[in-house]
């Protein structure tokens, strides 16, 4: 399909070559020639003309090469349309005295350039990005071929935004009217506008807000300097162009590639695109740490990852070792520094977690002292030589050889507001049940880093002087997810089970004397105010101390050894102050369906008029009580398809969806169909209805999108009346790749949403635990735990619904689950 679209774009522009060339001729003959040259030259890097290599992408009939070659520059110009290149060749001979002497013309795809890395000083483009199938990939390619310090200049506009925005459409139509009144050539209507609009609907940027989209993409590529100018059109457009395009003003995106092509830390220097593994020396060679430096091909931020601040905490150390081996420069944007064991002497002598010679806790002495003890000198070296180089910090810990804990994460809370906010967002990516805001700014490695402007977290997982592959893999997954969320590592974020709940007022109880510790709770247990946490006794069993909870909370860690020492820790617990303010995954899901809401409305409108609607009602009526008016909840109703069908059968129907645009469209569609439904924006996982409200809860293609499907099932059974029916139609979409469109009919919706949206869907799926489940067996097991009595499964549903391979066809095998509340 991509290749077909590309060929259609090429074919279209082939027919436009002659007319486009005439537009360029007008520009050459008028004041625009000098205006454009001035705009370009003021953006160029400071370099002699004869030394500068310029690439013009999507050159068309060759306007930029003509004015630049005449001004003394050497230009390489590429286009994918043969007719455009022929016209450019003709124009260079006709309108310049140098012809092809200073210009090289080549046929090439803007999204797959055939040039080597770091070839050009300047990359320019005009009116091209908007009609590319993969504009993100194009930007990546353009930055790749730029030299360090090189400049990208992209002139473009929201050309066909009016296809997706009513206000833009009205402004566009006003332009057409004004042009007609002034008796000017209409630059839209003198082309094959229907053909162009059809192309515009299939490429992603027509529906995007630009240049905000361009800025975001370039930031993700680690570009060091990005500027936009939304009034550049005022300097280069003729009066005729201003009247034609008043509703779509041209903007300039200027991006500068970082001139820094290596990263230096201690005595090690690493070039872009390379990885170093080995020892790194600090403090003039007095401190040598095992490390890895991964320098991405593209410049960007720097992440520091450390293990072994406490050298008896092995999970973090092993995670650093494996991350150093596995992370790749090709996927890295910016730089990742991994220091695998900070307290190296104690680790190599199996001497516990304190300094080998001074007995100090490294995580209590930051910022350190250059003339102090062993741990103080180490902290000083990290503070002075490492922290100034980094932007983010992940410190990997575990319970020491005497500590057992539930996995949780600290984030820096005593720092500048923006540092705390980023630290918290990093913590929210971690697959642990709890997060704690730290309110100290010195002593700890990550605390002090945050006070110096570095967003920082400390991750706790494992303990008791041991490590497992499962714990190490979890640490690695968390690190990759954080890197991905910061646009530093180009992978899909992995599935996680938790969004951490905030824990505050952490109480760190210490022993008042030596003795034997007998805990009464386990890490992760919820304890009530006054609950017994444990006792300390002597060798004869005599009670020395009783530890009780001062308030209701969760146990984060406790001493796991029999022996405790005076002043040493025995247990820590904290108060859960609130659930997460929002689930980042839900935010992504809502944003995704918001973008798909209009096409969903059109598809549901068509589906209601199609024979498939009767097939769906037949399947539903087989499962729900007959002969009476039912009160029905349609969960994840989307544009209201099921709600409308059921309301037309005189049932009382409530439809809920978390995406406001979907609810707006459902209301509109219900009005069109004269269906009496009630629609509300509401979270499917937390329906705000009383217990035993509905006779039927129904859903289609929703469960696979939920971060916490188990909780959702529990809530749906809660709002069902006793004897009520839960009817869920879904498929194991987590196992399907929606970006794989082979075998789908040409009219299918997946071709209309574009590859970028399909890939976004895959990224979201990868973060949802249900994507890893074996369904519908998983669903049945969950329902059995949630008051479900009789459960019926039908795995042949799709074969009865999708009789034709038409626009509604679903290639994934659908199943139905019917559960009766007992």
TrEMBL record:
Cofactor(s) of this protein: Zn(2+)
Residue intervals of the Succinylglutamate desuccinylase/Aspartoacylase catalytic domain: 299-485
Keyword Metal-binding listed: yes
GO biological process: methylation
Superkingdom as given in the UniProt entry: Bacteria
Domain Methyltransferase type: 55-153
A Pfam family reported for this protein in Swiss-Prot or TrEMBL: Methyltransf_31
One term of GO molecular function: methyltransferase activity
Protein's name in the database: Methyltransferase domain-containing protein
Species, as recorded: Fusicatenibacter saccharivorans
């Amino acid at each position: 399909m991509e290749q077909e679209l590309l060929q259609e774009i090429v074919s279209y522009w082939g027919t436009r070559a002659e007319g486009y060339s005439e537009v360029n001729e007008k520009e050459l003959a008028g004041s625009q020639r000098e205006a454009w040259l001035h705009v370009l030259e003021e953006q160029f890097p400071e370099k002699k003309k004869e030394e500068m290599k310029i690439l013009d992408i999507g050159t068309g009939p060759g306007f930029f090469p003509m004015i630049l070659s005449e001004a003394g520059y050497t230009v390489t110009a590429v286009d994918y349309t043969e007719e455009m290149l022929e016209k450019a060749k003709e124009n260079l001979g006709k309108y310049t005295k140098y012809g092809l002497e200073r210009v090289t013309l080549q046929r090439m795809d803007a999204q797959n350039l055939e040039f080597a890395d770091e070839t050009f000083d300047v990359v320019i483009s005009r009116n091209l990005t908007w009609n590319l199938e993969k504009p993100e990939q194009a930007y990546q390619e353009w930055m790749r071929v730029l030299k360090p310090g090189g400049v990208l200049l992209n002139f473009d506009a929201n050309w066909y935004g009016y296809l997706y925005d009513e206000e833009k459409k009205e402004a566009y139509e006003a332009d057409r009217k004004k042009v007609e009144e002034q008796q000017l050539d209409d630059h839209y209507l003198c082309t094959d506008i229907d053909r162009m609009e059809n192309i515009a609907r299939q490429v992603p940027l027509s529906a995007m807000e630009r240049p905000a989209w361009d800025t975001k993409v370039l930031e993700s590529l680690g570009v060091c300097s990005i500027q936009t100018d939304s009034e550049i059109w005022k300097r280069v457009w003729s009066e005729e162009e201003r009247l034609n395009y008043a509703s779509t003003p041209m903007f300039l995106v200027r991006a500068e590639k970082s001139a820094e092509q290596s990263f230096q830390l201690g005595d090690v220097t690493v070039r872009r695109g390379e990885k170093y593994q080995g020892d790194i020396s600090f403090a003039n060679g007095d401190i040598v740490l095992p490390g890895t430096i991964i320098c991405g091909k593209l410049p960007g931020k720097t992440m520091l990852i450390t293990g072994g601040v406490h050298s008896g905490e092995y999970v973090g150390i092993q995670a650093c070792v494996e991350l150093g081996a596995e992370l790749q420069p090709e996927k890295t944007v910016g730089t990742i520094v991994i220091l695998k064991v900070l307290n190296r002497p104690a680790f190599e002598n199996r001497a516990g977690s304190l300094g080998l010679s001074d007995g100090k806790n490294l995580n209590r002495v930051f910022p350190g002292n250059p003339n102090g003890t062993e741990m103080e000198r180490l902290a000083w070296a990290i503070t002075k030589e490492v922290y100034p180089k980094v932007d983010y910090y992940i410190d990997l810990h575990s319970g020491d050889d005497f500590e057992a804990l539930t996995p949780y994460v600290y984030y820096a809370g005593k720092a500048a507001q923006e540092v705390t906010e980023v630290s918290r967002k990093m913590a929210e990516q971690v697959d642990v049940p709890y997060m704690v805001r730290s309110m100290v700014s010195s002593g700890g490695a990550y605390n002090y880093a945050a006070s110096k402007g570095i967003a920082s977290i400390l991750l706790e997982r494992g303990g008791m002087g041991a490590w497992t592959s499962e714990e190490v893999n979890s640490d690695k997954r968390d690190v990759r997810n954080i890197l991905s969320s910061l646009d530093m590592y180009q992978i899909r974020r992995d599935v996680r089970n938790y969004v951490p709940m905030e824990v505050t007022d952490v109480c760190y109880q210490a022993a008042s004397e030596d003795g034997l510790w007998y805990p009464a709770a386990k890490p992760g247990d919820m304890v009530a105010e006054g609950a017994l946490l444990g006792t300390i006794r002597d060798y004869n069993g005599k009670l020395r101390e009783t530890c009780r909870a001062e308030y209701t909370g969760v146990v984060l860690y406790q001493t796991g050894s029999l022996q405790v020492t005076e002043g040493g820790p025995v247990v820590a617990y904290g108060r859960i102050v609130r659930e997460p303010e929002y689930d980042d995954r839900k935010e992504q899901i809502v944003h995704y369906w918001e973008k798909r809401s209009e096409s969903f409305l059109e598809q549901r409108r068509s589906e209601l008029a199609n024979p498939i609607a009767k097939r769906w009602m037949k399947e539903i009526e087989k499962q729900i009580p007959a002969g009476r008016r039912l009160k029905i909840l349609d969960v994840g109703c989307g544009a209201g398809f099921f709600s409308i069908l059921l309301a037309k059968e005189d049932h009382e129907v409530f439809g809920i969806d978390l995406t406001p645009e979907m609810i707006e469209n459902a209301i509109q569609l219900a009005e069109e169909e004269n269906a009496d439904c009630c629609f509300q924006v509401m979270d499917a996982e937390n329906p705000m209805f009383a217990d035993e409200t509905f006779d039927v809860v129904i859903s289609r293609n929703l469960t696979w999108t939920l971060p916490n499907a188990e909780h959702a099932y529990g809530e749906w059974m809660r709002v069902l009346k006793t004897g009520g029916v839960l009817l869920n139609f879904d498929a194991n979409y987590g196992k399907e790749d929606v970006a794989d469109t082979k075998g789908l009919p040409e009219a299918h919706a997946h071709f209309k949403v574009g590859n970028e949206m399909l890939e976004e869907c895959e990224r979201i799926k990868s973060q949802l635990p249900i994507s890893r489940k074996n369904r519908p067996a998983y669903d049945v097991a969950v329902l059995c735990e949630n008051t479900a009595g009789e459960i019926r499964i039908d795995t042949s549903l799709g074969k009865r619904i999708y009789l034709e391979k038409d626009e509604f066809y679903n290639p994934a095998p659908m199943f139905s689950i019917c559960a009766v509340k007992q």
